[in-house]
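User: Hand in any protein.

Assistant:
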Amino acid sequence: MGKRVAVVLAGCGVYDGSEIHESSAVLVHLSREGAQAEVYAPDVDQMHVVDHLKGQPTQEKRNVLVESARIARGNIKDLAKLDVKGLDALIIPGGFGVAKNLSTWATQGKNCIVSKEVEDVLKAFHAAKKPIGLCCISPVLAAKIFPGCELTVGHDTECEKWPYAKTAETMKELGCKHVNKHVTEVHVDVKNKLVTTSAFMCNAPIHEISDGIGKMVQEVVRLA
């Protein structure tokens, strides 16, 4: 039997949900590794809805679980029903939804609150010594919950290629060890069984982002 891996989504769309290319890459690479993805999302309202054409918030209201179901082709469960006992690993793709719907990182940075459901799930996998894969902005969840852990969000010096590098500095302020890695590389925190990669934190070609996510998935499945 292939490994059963929980994939937690945060909506649908980079600016207010899960990054669609990252989420798809996770599912494709899990399939390639012979693993079975089980997709979950919290049944809560989004912080807000962004018009992705204009890049501006709208007056709409949308639900994180309903929107995430678009990516999962309807095959998704409420995060409240996740049972760590039947699962081998956890992966959370990036996208601003992680910082808006799974936590308050977008508005509060290092002083953010991680939603209780998400925190409980991360702590349950960690306590069970089951691997956790995080890409793009989602490593901030681990930075907040597991002090002293080792992570990467790419590079810690801001430039055109690394426009979000200040995130690494904030993670260091939380007491984490940030490890600089190229977009096609991953960092493995052996002690905490955390596998991280930068994905769209890097201004890189989409195939390189997919390659990095593929390495993250391979490591997560190997550790499971």
